[in-house]
Amino acid sequence: MATGNLTLAPKNITECLDFPANVHSEGILNYNTAAGMPHTLPNLEMQMTGLILGPTFLGKLPMLKQYLFNLQSQEIIGVLTEFGYGLFMFLIGVKMDLGMIMRTGQKALCTGIACVVVPLVVGILVQTQLTSSYFNLTEEEIFKLSFVTASHCLTPFPVVACLLEDLKILNSEIGRLGMSAALVSDICSVFLQFVGTIARMVKQESSRFTILGIGSSIGYIIVVASILRPAMYWVIRQTPKNRPVKKAYLNIIIVVVLSSGVLSHMYGQSFHFGPFILGLAVPAGPPLGSAIEANLGLFVSDVLLPIFVTTCSMRVDFSWLNYFKTDAFTQVNGILIVLVLVTKFLASIVAPLYCNLPFSDALTVALILSCKGIVNLAAYTDFRDNQIINDPSYVLAITSILVTATLVPIAVNFLYDPSRKYAGYQKRNMMHLKPNAELKILACIHRSANMPAVINLLDAACPSKENPIGVYVLHLIELVGRASPIFISHELHKKTVSNVSYSDDILLYFNQFVRENLGAVSLSLFTAISAPKYMYEDTCHLALDKLVSLIVLPFHRRWSTDGSVESEDINIRTLNCSVLDRAPCSVGILVDRSHLGRSTSTVSSQSSFSVAIIFLGGKDDREALAFSKRMAKDSTISLTVIRLVPRTNEAVGSDWDLDTEGLKYFRDDDVDERFVMYLEEAVKDGPQTALLLRSIVDQYDLIIVGRRYNVQSPQTAGLSEWTEFPELGTVGDLLASPDINCRASILVVQQQRMVTK
């Protein structure tokens, strides 16, 4: 039997001192790890008196000291784990955005309610039938079984959030639906747990204590909503923009969190009830929510939570499963575990199907919502320690957690691949746009410093009423201090629940660009708040939804005005590489060497803006040519096409013919030679190409190249081994190198990767 002891020392005093069998069977101490307190039985004083008078006491004294030391260690670790789980639930409350419930769609709302209510109703009905007709249980066991059945129906938000993050589908369509449904079901689950705790108090405690417990819980919620939440907003107002929250405020909040847990325990609720409710009062996201997460998140998740899980696991002894054949309570509990799980799974399928979700996606959602995790572990452990379930039932419940936590991720990975929808079956690139069709461009912005270069690139694309541009701006913000990613369409003029205004500066900048090109440019602005490793999902999904032809991504390295590297962001580089791999259209990485980014009027303010296209051949280079054709229509832009040809005939072939056809426009006599120039340069190998590029970089404001990833050619022979950033290709990486003091910015273009049906 697992007793929750933390060492291999004797389990109790009678064992270490060889008490008689009748005394040993009585038991001396019953340690409750959940409460963190040892309970002394009434006959302890009498037994200890006989022990002291006995002749074997002195010989057994070292073992007694070891036992008392272990008991004290258990008490300390028990209290530590309670605090750890309380802080974990507080952080979960901080990350939860209750405003999402008001914005939840029909699919998530129906699915979230169904996956809790349907299994609860079916479970209670079947439990009543089993206990009345098939199994002989006591009235006390039947009463306890109702709470256990309700706990099987839980769909905890933290479990779903962690699962989706581990599967890397948090920002996918299914991930967002699962998170919204889990939030709805978790609110239902918290209400069920609160009602269950009150019912238990009514049954087991005095009427005075029950009334006091209910009144104190309701009063605490009122105090949190009316006093503590406004106090949180006061802290935010006291924090200057882009400045950290004062440590004193954070320390006070942590003290209040721990105090609320102690008070919750004193008045009959679980320890984590108070911290969780307080966490819901903290406005999610920066500055306060992100500051709390930054100060507590790592310590709680990497230190306290593993200790909690370990102490819970030490209570498990799988040999207790042998009692399943003989123990009626365990048999009923096992039937209910399977029944509730199957019912929850079916309810979670039917509700999305009713809302017209495809069957494979509905199946994936059902698997996600049926998974169990740490919150279920805590609930079952609390039941075991408070003797609501016996040890065999506890082991059975833990087994259900292990099975679902193991099989669900495997099944979801098999059923759902979010990148499949981005596969290029339809041509969405600039080469295949119809003449005078609107060019749709998705511009990604991380910070205000990215805006001038992007706006000037758009201006260089020569927007006009005959050749309009549709600009979709996506402001990408790192998700900190909240669990659910947020996607905001500023066309809908909706504010977040905390009334935080996002992307106002960006909106002003791009609106000015639209006014300067009235009738030629349409603008839509979006804000995505998500973890950096999942930002590619927002980018690719928006590009697919809006049918854009080009995604413009800022390069992860920034240069200062003197040409030196100012900063690097590895998260932006990861995003760029992910988008290049999955994009449903063409992609351009804009390397701003601090010339395009000096102001938002570089193109329009200059009498001539110099652009060069370095053409070696291939589909990426032809896509770059397609973009530059628009620039040839602007008399303020001086465009030079430089074709690098090998001195040998190695490149002759079908691709060569396509390249020649693509260049025909620039070689045509009808092109105004004052603004468009075509040059051919013969090069022997990569080093000669590098020398040529070094000699011309200072002549242009913008250089456009194709990525040509993994394309071998004589013109670049010997250069690929020195490539630092493969996402830029060989030529793009050479031009972006700090070794070249280049004033020109670089646009590296990759044509849409097509998939053969």
UniProtKB/TrEMBL annotation:
Domain Cation/H+ exchanger transmembrane span(s) in chain numbering: 48-412
Keyword Signal recorded: no
Keywords: Ion transport, Membrane, Potassium, Potassium transport, Transmembrane, Transmembrane helix, Transport
Transmembrane portions of the chain: 76-96, 108-130, 142-164, 176-199, 211-236, 248-267, 296-316, 336-355, 362-381, 393-416
UniProt cross-references to Gene3D superfamilies, sorted A to Z: 1.20.1530.20
Stretches assigned to the Cation/H(+) antiporter central domain: 471-597
InterPro entries: Cation/H_exchanger_TM, CHX17_2nd, CHX17_C, CPA2_transporter, Na+/solute_symporter_sf
Subcellular location: Membrane
Topology within the bilayer: Multi-pass membrane protein
Predominant localisation class: membrane
Domain Cation/H(+) antiporter C-terminal: 608-752
A Pfam cross-reference name: CHX17_2nd
Entry similarity comment: Belongs to the monovalent cation:proton antiporter 2 (CPA2) transporter (TC 2.A.37) family. CHX (TC 2.A.37.4) subfamily.
Protein name, per record: Cation/H(+) antiporter 4-like
Annotated organism of origin: Prunus mume (Japanese apricot)
The encoding gene: LOC103335813
